[in-house]
Amino acid sequence: MRVARTMGWLAGAAGAVALARVRRHRVAGKAVLVSGGSRGLGLCIARELARRGARLAIAARDVRELEAARVELAALGAEVVPIACDVASEEDAARMVREAEARLGRVDALVNVAGIIQVAPAEGLRLQDYRDAVGVNFWGTVHATLAALPAMRARGDGAVLNVTSIGGAVAVPHLLPYTAGKFAQVGFSEGIAAEAAKDGVRVTTVVPGLMRTGSFLRALFKGRREAEVGWFAVASSLPLLTVGAGRAARRMVDALERGERYVVVGWPARALRLLHALLPGATIRAMALANRLLPSQGGVSADEPAREGHAHRPRVARSFLTALGDAAAARNRERPREA
Predict the structure, then answer these.
(1) Is the pLDDT reported for residue 1 higher than 80?
(2) Is the pLDDT of residue 3 over 60?
(3) E-strand spans in 48-151?
(4) Of 127, 191, 193, 210, which sees the most CB atoms within 10 A?
(5) DSSP element (H, E) containing 90
(6) What does the angle CA 97 – CA 136 – CA 241 come to, to the nearest 5 degrees?
(7) What distance in Å separates the CA atoms of residue 233 and residue 227, rounded to the nearest whole number?
C-alpha cells in the first residue's frame, strides 16, 4: 500500500509538473515570428497560433501572398505584422528578426517553416538545385535562428521550433536536394537545442512525414515533369499516407508550448524512422526498390529550370486520388492565382 501511495504521489507530481510546463510556455500574448507563414504549413501554424492568442509576424517572399494571409489571420483576432523576406539571404533574415522585434517589442518564439522542394531523379538535377534547396531549407533556418538567439539568451527565455522533415532522417529518392538540406537542418536544430538550453532557450526539432497541405502545386519539378507531378501529387494527398495540415499544425504548436525537444508527426514517419534506425541497410535497399517504380530520367534537360507542379498536372493528378490534396491547396493558399 505504501508503495502504491508513493507511486500515485509521484505520478500526480509528474502530471502537475507537466501541466505547469505547458502553462508556463503558452503562446497567448506572446510574439511569434513564422517564416514561410503566407501559405501551406506555415499558414496553418500561424492560424493555430492566432487561435491561441499569439501576436504574429509572418514572413515570406511574395508581398501579395503575405497581405492575403495577414487579412485572414487578422480576422481571427490576431495582431499580424507581414514582413517580405528571403531567409536564404543572411541580411534579409537579420532584417526580418529586427523588424519583428521593433514592431512587436520582442520575439518570444521563432518558427522556421520556410522551405522549397524539387522533385526529379538525380540525373535530372544540377548543382544549383542543391544550392537552392540548402540555401532555404538549411541556411534559412540558420540565418533566422542566429539572428533571434542573442535577445532570447540575454533575457534567459525564448523558443525556436524548426520544422524539418522525415526526409531529414531518411533519404528519399527523387528528392535529393531537399533531403540534403533537411538532413543539415536536423543536425543544426539538435545541436543548437543542446547548446542553447543553458541560456533558457528551448529548441524543438519537428520531423513531419507527408502532410496534406496542397504543396504539390507549388513544388518544383524537372525531368519527366508530368510523371513526377503525378506520383508526388497522389502520394501527398492519400489519407493513409498523409497527415492533415491542420492536425499537424496543432501538434507542432503543442510541442512549442510544452518545450518538447524532438517530435515526429504521423505514424508513417515514425515507422520509417524506426525502421531506418534499426535496419539502415535494409531501408536503403527498400528505397532502391521504390526508386525503380519512379519515373526515369527524360523530358527536360538538367540545365532547364524547375517548374511549379500546377503547370504540369497529368490526369491522375486531377482525379479523385488528389481530391484531398486539392481541397487542402485551396484552403491553405497553395493554389496559384492562374491555376
Answers:
(1) no
(2) no
(3) 55-60, 80-84, 109-112, 118-119
(4) 210
(5) helix 90-104
(6) 115
(7) 10
Using CA atoms, how far apart are residues 102 and 97, in angstroms rounded to an integer?
Answer: 9
Domain covering 2-331 in this structure, CATH number: 3.40.50.720
Q: Residue 30 gets which letter from DSSP?
A: -
Q: Which amino acid is at 336?
A: P
Confidence at residue 81, expressed as pLDDT on a 0 to 100 scale: 98
pLDDT band at 24 (very low <50, low <70, confident <90, very high): low
Which single residue is written with the C-alpha cell 502545386?
A: 217
For the chain, what percent of residues have pLDDT higher than 70?
A: 92
**Catalytic center residues:** 178
CA distance 11 to 54: 31
Nearest 5°: phi and psi at 111? -120, 110
Nearest Cα to Cα of residue 32 among 125, 103, 138: 103
- Which DSSP string do the residues of 259-323 spell out, in sequence order? T-SEEEESHHHHHHHHHHHH-HHHHHHHHHHHHHHSPPS-SS-TTSPPEEGGGG--GGGGSGGGH
For residue 209, give the amino acid letter.
G
Three-state secondary structure readout of 198-258:
HHCEEEEEEEECCEECCHHHCCEECCCHHHHHHHHHHHCCCCCCCEEHHHHHHHHHHHHHH
Nearest to 188 by CA among 236, 227, 146: 146
* φ/ψ (deg, to 5) at 265: -105, 120
